[in-house]
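User: Small ask, check this?
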Amino acid sequence: MSADAAGGEKKRGTRRFPLWTRDTARPEGGGRAAPGDAPAPARQWPLIAVLSVAGLGLLLTAFDLFRVGCILVGVALLGGAVLRWVLPSVGMLAVRSRFTDLVTYGILGLAIVLLAMMAQPDPWLKIPFLQDTLHFTVR
């Protein structure tokens, strides 16, 4: 007879973390974006779309279209946030929880777009209180 059947006692497991991690949990929404029989690029189309737009933005920046290229990089991140919000499965575009991905992609994308629009010379966007802040801190 086993110890469980004889004494009715169950061996308590330890609450310590394992010494070696054998597996990690897939993030929420980290499943395939297309059926499993589809080719690999089709299964990861959200990530490929975001990387393509960001790559185009970097290419435009390299060809001396700084403002447009940076705006495109920011728009790619904002598009990633929208895809993460709308689609139930986005493949490798899912890094953490849905909320964390939305906040991260959204804040970084918005910051890049706003900074590109405020870049000197001849900014497309002028925010008056930032000029006053600069006046009191630097000049």
